[in-house]
What we know:
disordered N terminus, 667 residues, 49 strands, eight-stranded antiparallel β-barrel, 1 helix, mainly beta
Amino acid sequence: MKTTMRRPVLMLLFLMVALMSLAQDKPQKAPDDMVIITEQPEGQLKIYNRSGYIVKDDNLNTSTPTAQTGVMSIVFAEDNVVYIEDPVSEHAYNRWVKGTLSADGTTITLQLGQYLDYIQSFDMALTLNVLDYDEAQGTFIPDEEAKEITYTVDGDQIILNGTSRQRILGTVYRPFRDFMDLDGKWTGTGDYESVYTPFDGVLSTPPPGLETTTLKMTTSMYGGVEWEQLTTDVNIGEDGNDVYLQGITTYVSKGWLKGTRNGNTVTFPSGQFIGTYNGAPFYVVGARIIDGNYTICDFTFEDDGQGTLTSKDYIFITTEKDQFVYVVYYLGVTISNAEDALVDVPEGLEPATYIVNYQYHPQGSNSLARANKFIKVARHDNSLYIKGLGAQTPDGWVKGDIDGDRLTFDLPQYLGTYDDGYGLVYPFYFIAFDTVTGELLPEATLHYDDATGTFDEASTGLGISINKTSFLTAQEYYNPIFTKFNDVPAVPSRPVITDFNGEDEKSAYITVNINGRSLNGGLIDPEQLGYQFYTDIEQDVQPFVLTTDRFERLTEDMTVIPYLFIDNDEQGYDIVYLDEHTRKVYLNTDPTVINRIGVQTVYTGGGEERRSDIVWKELKDYTGIDTTLSVATESQPVHPAYNLQGQRVAPGYKGIVVANGRKTVKK
C-alpha cells in the first residue's frame, strides 16, 4: 500500500530546465547559516481557516481566481515572536517562518527571503518573496527591494496586507551550484488577498506533568492500493479515567487523542482533531461494518491487564471529521511492548507427511472451491505440531493440545514474517473465525482420532491472517480434514514447457509447469518430487547439470532440481518460483548451440524413483547429414520401462516389461 498524500514535486519550469545542460560561471554551495524550521516551535498554537485567492503558472490567463482552502497554523511565542506554518498555501511542506508581533498586537511582520525548503539532490532552496506580474515576460518577478510583508490582526481575523492579482506572496528558486539560470525564478504558485479566520477544531491536551509510557503500535494499514504493516511508537498516559494517546498516525505524530476508561475497555470518541499536515486538518474517525457498510462510531480498545491494548474497530485517518475522506485506515490495532514469538518446537521431532483437504473462496467468488495441501505433522506427548499451513511462511509451526478426542489450539499463533521483495514485510498468524460473522475466535477445537491420527473440524473456519486481532485472511480452511499421506511409488505426470528464451547466455531461461500429481492423477508428495533438464546438441543427449561455477548460489552440483527448491537471495536468483506449479530456470549457458531442450519429472515416493517421459522443445535444426533421431521428440516420447514388481529396468532387460501402460516381452 502506498499512502495517498505525497510531497508535491517541483513545478514544470524546474523540471524542464533540469533536463538541460546549463553553463555555470562560479560553482556555489548552500550557505552554512541557512535556517529551515521543520518542527513546530514552542508557544501558543492557533489554527486558522484559509481564504483568499491562489495564482498558478498554469492559470495566469484565467479570469476566475482559484480560492484558497485548508488551514494555516500560527504559534505565538514569548517576546512577541510569531511563527507561521506554510505561509504560501500551495507550498504546504510543514515548514515554519519567523516573524514579530507588534507591541499593540495588531501587526505581524515577516522578513522576506526566509528559506522554506531545501532540495538536497539539486542543491537548491526555495525562499519566501513578494512578486509582481510582468506583462512583457508573462510571469511574476520577485520584488528584490521588498524586505518584509505584514499581516493585520483584527480581533480573531488575520489579513495579509499589500497583495493583489498583480502582486502576490510566493516562492522563488535559489540554486547554489547547478541550474543558476533559475535563480530568482518564480516556482509557479502564490497567494493574494488572504484572510485567515479561526478554525473550529479543538486539540486534546494532556494535563501538565502527565506520566506517559512509550509503547509499540502495530496494525494493518490500507491507503488505497494494498494492505501494509505499520509499526510505530505511541505515548500513552492516564489521569483518573481519562486516557491520552499520542502518535496514532505518523502524519501528525504529536497529536493527542483523549479517551475514557471503563474497566478493561477504553473508548475514544470518533472525529477527534489531532493537528494539521500539508495544510489540511487531520481527524481520527472510528467505524464498524454494519449491514455491509462502514458506519461511523466511537472506537474501543480492550486492555488484557498485562500491558496490551487491542482494537477490532476500523480507525480512519481522515481530512473530514464525519466522512471517510481517508488518507489511510487501520484494522486490528495492537498497542504493547510484547513481541510476537514463534512456537517453541521440541528437538527431535519426526514429522509425518499429511494432506489437509479443505474448501476456500476463490478470488472474487462467494462460492466455495475444494483444494488440498501437503503439510507436516508431529506429535510430542499430548501436543500436536503442524508445519506448512501458511504459503508465505512454510517453516512456521502451530501447536495444539490433545485431550481425548479433542485437539485445541489457543489463538492467534505467530508464524513469522514474509518480505514481498518490494520493501513490504508482513506478519502472518494462524487464526480461527466464525464462519457466519467472520469474528476471530480465541481458540479452535478439532475432533481428533488417536488411532488414525486424523483430525477435522466442520463448524469453525481456520485461516492464515496478516492481522492477529481482525479478519484479514490470506488463506482459508473451511471444513478441513487432516489425514496421513499414503507414501507409495508413482510415476509423475509429464511436465509442460510453457516458455523458452534463447537469445543469449545472459538471458536464456526455460519455464516449466509441473502439476504435482501422478500419471494417473493421484496426489504425490511435493518434497519427493523433482525435475531434470536434458540438452540435445547434434543428437548427443546429455543431462543438464547445474554446476556451482555457473550457478553461484548452489553449494554443490545439481542434476535433479527439487520441486520446492528456489535459490533467490539479495544478490539475485536463477531458479524462480512463479506459482505453485510453475518454475522459471535461467540456464547460464549458451543456448544457441542446443538443438532441443527437454525436461522430465522425477518422483521418489515409497522409496523408489519413478520418472516421467522426457518432454522436448525443438530449438533449431541439426547440421549433420543424418537427421534420424536417436531420442524421443514431443510426438515420439521415450517411455521408461518397469518389471512386474514396478522396478525400473535398463533398455537391455529381458523379460516382461511395462512401458507406456503396455506389457511387452523382451527377448
